[in-house]
Structure to design on (285 residues):
C-alpha cells in the first residue's frame, strides 16, 4: 500500500521522529530468525485502531511465552539496548506493568527516549497466534482505522470516517517520515483485531481487581483509559457499533464491555451557534 505524501493535519499530534530509516532493523532480524511475528500493542497499536492517542517513548511488542527470555537476551546481545525500569508515569501508575521487561536504546549521553517493552502472552493475556491485521509501520503518523468494519459513518453526530481507504483518499499522511525498516526489508507488522485487543484489556482489568493486593498503586487505570478511548473514538455507544462489537467478544467479557459503554457520556459538540444559545438561555439576575 502506497503512502500519499501530504502535510499532516494540524489537529493531530504526531509521535517523535526517530533518527534514520531502518532504526528497528535489528529487532526485525531477531524476530525473523526465530520465525516470530512482529505484533504491536498499547498506543502504537491503538493508533492503527483509530484511537487518537499519542505513542510516546515506548514501542510495545507481544512476545510468545516460550520465546520471551531468548528474545530479550538476543536484543541485549546486540549491545544497543540496556534494561531499564518501566516508566510508571507513562503507564498511568499501573504497577501491573512493572513485570514487563523494558529495553532502552543506548546513546552516548544516556538520554535516549526510545524503549522497547516486551509483553509476554501470559502478561498481556493475548495469544500471539490469534487473528491479526497487517499494518504499514510501527508508527501511524496520523490516526488510521485499519479494521474498516468498525469505521464511523458521517451521518453520526460528531463522527467522520477514519478508515484507511477514506483517510488515504483524503490525502492524510499515513506513514511517518522515517521508517522502521530499511528499503530492502519488508517484514510484516501486525496488530491484534479490535475484539481480541478488547478481550485482553478486559481480562487484565478483571485480573487487576481480583489481585489488587499484588499491585499497589493505580492498577486498572491504564486498561480503563484504553477501554474508554475505544468507546470514545469508535463511537461504540452507537447502536450500530455496539451490536456489531459485543457478539465478537468472549462471553465472559460482554457484560463488562457493555457496562463500560453504558458508563460513557459523550460531551455535546460546542459550536458558535450552541454557545450563543447558551448565552441566550442564561437566566437574568
Amino acid at each position: 500500500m502506497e503512502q500519499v505524501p501530504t502535510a499532516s493535519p494540524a489537529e493531530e499530534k504526531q509521535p517523535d521522529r526517530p533518527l534514520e530509516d531502518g532504526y528497528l532493523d535489528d529487532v526485525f532480524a531477531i524476530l525473523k530468525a526465530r520465525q516470530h511475528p512482529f505484533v504491536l500493542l498499547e498506543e502504537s497499536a491503538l493508533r492503527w485502531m483509530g484511537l487518537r492517542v499519542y505513542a510516546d517513548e515506548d514501542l510495545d511488542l507481544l512476545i510468545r511465552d516460550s520465546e520471551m527470555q531468548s528474545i530479550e537476551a538476543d536484543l541485549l546481545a546486540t549491545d544497543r539496548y540496556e534494561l531499564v525500569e518501566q516508566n510508571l508515569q507513562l503507564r498511568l501508575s499501573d504497577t501491573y506493568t512493572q513485570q514487563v521487561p523494558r529495553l532502552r536504546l543506548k546513546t552516548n549521553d544516556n538520554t535516549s527516549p526510545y524503549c522497547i517493552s516486551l509483553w509476554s502472552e501470559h502478561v498481556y493475556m493475548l495469544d500471539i497466534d490469534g487473528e491479526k491485521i497487517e499494518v504499514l509501520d510501527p508508527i501511524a503518523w496520523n490516526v488510521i482505522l485499519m479494521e474498516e468494519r468498525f469505521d464511523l459513518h458521517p451521518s453520526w453526530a460528531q463522527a467522520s470516517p477514519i478508515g484507511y481507504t477514506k483517510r488515504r483518499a483524503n490525502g492524510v499522511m499515513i506513514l511517518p517520515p522515517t521508517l522502521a525498516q530499511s528499503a530492502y526489508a519488508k517484514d510484516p507488522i501486525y496488530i491484534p483485531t479490535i475484539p481480541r485487543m478488547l478481550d485482553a484489556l478486559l481480562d487484565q482489568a478483571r485480573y487487576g481487581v481480583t489481585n489488587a493486593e499484588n499491585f499497589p498503586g493505580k492498577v486498572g487505570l491504564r486498561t480503563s483509559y484504553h477501554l474508554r478511548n475505544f468507546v470514545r473514538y469508535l463511537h461504540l455507544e452507537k447502536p450500530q457499533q455496539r451490536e456489531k462489537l459485543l457478539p465478537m467478544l468472549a462471553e465472559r467479557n460482554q457484560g463488562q464491555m457493555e457496562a463500560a459503554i453504558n458508563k460513557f457520556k459523550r460531551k455535546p459538540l460546542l459550536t458558535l451557534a450552541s454557545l450563543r444559545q447558551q448565552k441566550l438561555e442564561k437566566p437574568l439576575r
Remarks:
- The radius of gyration is 20 Å.
- The longest strand covers residues 58-63.
- Residues 134 and 190 are 4 Å apart (CA to CA).
- The mean pLDDT is 88.
